[in-house]
Amino acid sequence: MPKQTFFNLPEDKKEKIMEAARNEFSRVSFYEASISNIVKEAGISRGSFYQYFVDKEDAFFFTMKDFRNIYNAKFKDFLKNTEGDLIQAFILIYEFLLEFFQGDDNRSFFKNAFLNMSYRMEQTMTKGMNSCIPCKNADDKQNQVEQGKRIIDLVDVSKLNIKTDKDIFTVFRILVSLTMSNIVESFAKQLSFEESLELYKKQINLIKNGVCKDTQNTVTN
To answer: Is 216 part of a structural domain of the chain?
Structure first.
């Protein structure tokens, strides 16, 4: 998260700095990105950069904020439009993400992000997608739990074989992981929209339909 000095800046200057950062992270991977290039395009000094951000990672993670906000809003809309069908909502959000990430304004940025992710980057990318799962970080916990409850309220549990919030959280986490791994594979293998969507639907239908004939049995230690 940027320092307070960044948030105190005029809106146009903040936008210029973030545009410069996004352009640099779109040009090359995070590891190759240069703070010198960012400050040059933004028209600020290197010292000013460190007055606004802790480091390069701090600036990179903040560029993901818009993605998280867009994702949350879209996912809620899809749940409402499908009358709480969790599986169908994930298929719709995957279609949206494919189009969003492949757009001219986003492709290079997200390709570099997804194909060069460290563990911390992966956690940041999925933070927004896991917004209905209570956060372990005490600073974010209250807001995220409240947001999660709002999302869960939109899920029609009568369409699922699970009833508790804990089980819904678990299924949601599994579906988010599946979604993320397929997005990465789409970039890595340069799959077409149709190829990637077909593969995702096959995998998510395995989860929907189950893989065991006797669904009454559960795995025990």
So the answer is: no
